[in-house]
Specification:
3% strand; 144 residues; two-stranded antiparallel ribbon; 68% helix
Length: 144
């Protein structure tokens, strides 16, 4: 049902991956220019282009998970897949941060770098709530 706590967690994940990731700065490059997610789409580096695409995939998976409220097992599967996508996204972003000139020294990383980590936390909380609901429904079915 849509009035559960996992809906709130999934909506926060959708807002973070769908809206905030495209509005918040990711980092400041060596030319002191602020890099946003939408500016990575026109990059020559393939891994830079993958980052916004993975953010969109994560948002779509979160929406799909939210809409599959009647099938909790598929919700759990899509949610776990979304967690894997976000860890992959986090790995690519950390790789790029360390690959930048002075990557380990530069302290001007935007909040966008931490969005996948925050999304993983909300997805894990949603998954925990979905599993709890699934156990509750199965226990009630056993009593009938």
């Amino acid at each position: 049902m849509l009035q559960r706590i996992q809906t709130v967690y999934l909506v926060v994940a959708i807002l973070l991956t769908g809206l905030a990731s495209f509005l918040l700065p990711f980092w400041v490059d060596q030319n002191n220019e602020i890099v946003y997610l939408k500016s990575l789409l026109v990059s020559e580096d393939v891994l830079f282009v993958i980052v916004p695409i993975l953010f969109m995939v994560s948002g779509i998976l979160s929406i799909l998970t939210l809409l599959l409220f009647k099938n909790r097992t598929k919700q759990i599967i899509y949610n776990r897949l979304n967690i894997v996508v976000n860890f992959l996204l986090l790995g690519i972003i950390v790789y790029h941060q360390l690959k930048l000139p002075g990557g380990a020294i530069v302290s001007e990383k935007g909040i966008g770098v931490f969005i996948p980590l925050i999304v993983v936390v909300f997805l894990a909380l949603a998954n925990k709530a979905i599993i709890k609901d699934d156990k509750l429904v199965k226990s009630v079915d056993r009593l009938r």
